[in-house]
Design brief:
Strand order of the largest sheet: 1-2
Helix content: 40-55%
Radius of gyration: 15 Å
Structural class: alpha+beta
Largest sheet: 2 strands, parallel
Number of helices: 4
CATH topology of the largest domain: Macrophage Migration Inhibitory Factor
Length: 91
């Protein structure tokens, strides 16, 4: 941050954190974004964190982009649901 970057790259910053630590990280990342006015590229598997801090999400599956949109659009995207949550089957 001392060099005043325009982009902050974060790769799995919540890895190994408990829920309280992840919530604190969430608040810290939002503070950096909002106060310092810096763009953030986040690679993360913690979907709560991703949905809370993201304006735009790109979803990858096996190295290919399968969806782009707002958190709500991504949450409702059938292709994302199929890839990450699986499809419902009749019992």
């Amino acid at each position: 941050m001392a060099t005043e970057p325009f982009l902050l790259l974060l790769d799995e910053p919540a890895a190994g954190m408990n829920p309280q630590e992840t919530d604190e990280l969430d608040a810290f990342i939002c503070r950096i974004r909002d106060e310092v006015k810096i763009a953030i590229l986040l690679i993360e598997h913690d979907m709560k964190l991703v949905m809370n801090i993201s304006d735009q999400i790109h979803v990858m599956e096996y190295g290919k982009k399968i969806a782009t949109g707002t958190p709500q659009e991504i949450k409702d995207n059938p292709r994302v649901i199929k890839a990450y949550l699986g499809e419902e089957t009749d019992a």
